[in-house]
Specification:
alpha/beta; 19% strand; 6 helices; 6-stranded mixed β-sheet
Length: 176
Amino acid sequence: MGEGASRTLEYCRVCPVWIVDGEVESRDVLIGLDSSDNALGAVDHAAFMLADTDCHVTLFHSMRHLNRFIPLEVIEEAPELEKLWKHKAGQRIAPQMEKAKKMLLEVGLTEKQITIKVVDGSRSAAKDILDEARNSGCGTIVLGRHGTSMVKEFFMGSVVRKVLDSCHGLAVWVVH
């Protein structure tokens, strides 16, 4: 990404920014969700842009794996802990997914056009998002600028930045 695009992303706080790297061949869209308000803002933008289209939309969430917080040895000794973690994480994101789906339905998308996908995440949510977009044939990724971590420094390791670093052949809509 060039300096102009970087500066635009860094300082633009009033409108979504679209970054396109290479030729985008698919009209299908992946919206990366977490439990933040900014994620719903991204859904709102996507809903506005995709209203009454025939695009397919995947609402996607990569659950953080417990091993990001607890040593693997502890998890192996207490498998019920991992089961509880997955259950609670799934409960936390479910209402957000339903809100997002409702927003898309309200602008004219149909049930058939919307897929909800929650995966056991790897150590990198950005990698999970990119892998899912490529594996499901999406041409566009939509992300809220700041997620649940409320990272103030946009260019210091955020999921959005990591997605932008590897988005060749994709459009990325970054919504503040």
